[in-house]
Amino acid sequence: MGWETLKRWGADAARVEPLTGGVANDVWSVRVGGRLAVGRLGTRSDADLAWETELLQHLDREGLTVPVPIPATDGRLFADGLVVMTYVEGLAPETDADWRRAAEALRRLHELTRGWPQRPGWRSSADLLHAETGTKVDLRAMPAEGVARCRAAWARLAGRETCVVHGDSNNLGNVRVTADRVALIDWDEAHVDVPELDLVLPGNAAGLDDAAYDVAAQASAAWEAAVCWDDEYAVKRLAEVRAI
């Protein structure tokens, strides 16, 4: 259907300007009911979007600052791949203290989502010790030696408690800071996995000890290599995963 679907949010709903940072989706600032919001148009399934919008509503109810889905006029939270969400103000983290606050928000996310069901079609790092595919991951496309290194890194986290992870938390654009709160935006990569994958932050803001940071950093590098394979960034990340 495309952007004409935005009319489901009201006859006066309109796009304002494109927003940077979207890769898998077309993201715009929009005006809905006289207020500024964000529209994201993509090809996610209804099951996937239902998982994400339910998660964001849950986190909002629990006091975490996230984009909140705005219902269409018929009450639906998404339609034909389009989701409209509240616009979240704030700046990217600039200081060590900002990143420590981000780490606190991520740990709150993890606490609030223990036992959460997996995002439809996704695999966790533990699943990929045996599975070869899952959403954006296709280990069959990677060199066998690279797959072995990634799996060795993920195996060090196997058996740990899982929760929802943001999945792209060390990206400056996905954390918005103001004087009184930290917001987490862009939940495209969110799924259920081990929380350590979210805690490899600039300056080790999560305060992991040396051994824990090494395990988390290796697993995170392996994950990003697998998800992005085989662009330049993925090749660089795989190079950070130690040989067996």
How would you sum up this structure, described in words?
With 244 residues, the protein is of the alpha+beta class. The chain folds into two domains: 2-86, Phosphorylase Kinase, domain 1, CATH 3.30.200.20; 96-239, Aminoglycoside phosphotransferase (APH), C-terminal lobe (Aminoglycoside 3'-phosphotransferase, Chain: A, domain 2, Alpha-Beta Complex), CATH 3.90.1200. It is 30% helix and 16% strand. It has a four-stranded antiparallel sheet with strand order 1-2-3-4, with no helix packed on it. The chain is globular. The protein starts with 13 loop residues before the first strand and ends in a 5-residue tail after the last helix. The mean pLDDT is 95. It comes from Nonomuraea maheshkhaliensis. Residues 16-205 form the Aminoglycoside phosphotransferase domain. This is Aminoglycoside phosphotransferase domain-containing protein.
Question: Quick gist of this model?
Answer:
The chain has 244 residues and is of the alpha+beta class.
